[in-house]
Amino acid sequence: MNTYVEDLPLALREANRVLKPGGRLITTLWNRVWTHTISVELLAQLAPSRSLDLDPTCLKEPGLMERHLEDAGFTVEKREIGSYPFRTPAGGDALKAWTIPIMRGLQEMAAADPAVMDKAKQIFEGIVEREGFIVDDGIVSDRGNAYSPVVATKAR
Fold first, then answer.
1. How many Å separate Cα 70 from the centre of its chain?
2. How many CB atoms lie within 10 A of CB 6?
3. Which of 24, 56, 148, 151 would suit a FRET pair with 111, their CA atoms being 20 to 30 Å apart?
4. Which pLDDT does position 138 carry in this prediction?
């Protein structure tokens, strides 16, 4: 919810309004999302004039989401940190999976210049190697997407 709403303070105030007293709001903040990181780097190299409109890690700064929640009338109970790997089959499908945020744009660029996809694949493979992703048994696995679940409660 929090990364993709236009007016976060308004959305949180509305959530507080509709929850029962003592009700909980649970949300997830992304600290690192490899599909986003890879997509940003690919765009910077292939089409520097293009950029991603949304950043799923925009609220990762410690305390930022908590301030928004408190301003909306919530009490923050806890924030934790978690991580999990993103795993995909290697090969051509890996590029599609790891560049979900920009795949449509890559396909549009490739319609005008078919070499774009080959360049994108080379860049992707370089990132996989540089970042130490695991490629084993036909699977590409990152070093873990990091997230923070946050639990907040409406006053009783």
1. 24
2. 6
3. 56
4. 84
Its pTM surpasses 0.70: yes
Q: CB-side exposure of 107: number of CA atoms within 13 Å?
A: 8
**Residues 43, 84, 47: CA angle, nearest 5 degrees:** 0
> Which element (helix H / strand E) includes 46?
helix 34-46
Closest by CA position to 125, among listed 55, 41, 30, 51: 41
How far is residue 52's CA from residue 70's CA, in Å, rounded to a whole number? 29
- What letters, b where the CB count within 10 A reaches 16 and e where it falls short, cover 75-89? ebeebeeeeeebebe
Place of tokens 């997230």: 147
Could you tell me the CA-to-CA distances from 95 to 34, 119, 125, 127 in Å, in that order?
Answer: 12, 11, 9, 11
What tens digit of pLDDT does each residue of 100-146 get?
Answer: 899 999 999 999 999 999 999 999 999 999 998 988 888 999 988 99
Residue 20: both structure tokens together = 């029962």
Which residues have C-beta within 8 Å of that of residue 136, sequence separation ≥ 6?
none
Distance CA 119, CA 101 (A): 17
Report pLDDT for 1: 53
> In degrees, to the nearest 5, what angle opens at C-alpha 93 toward C-alphas 57 and 52?
30
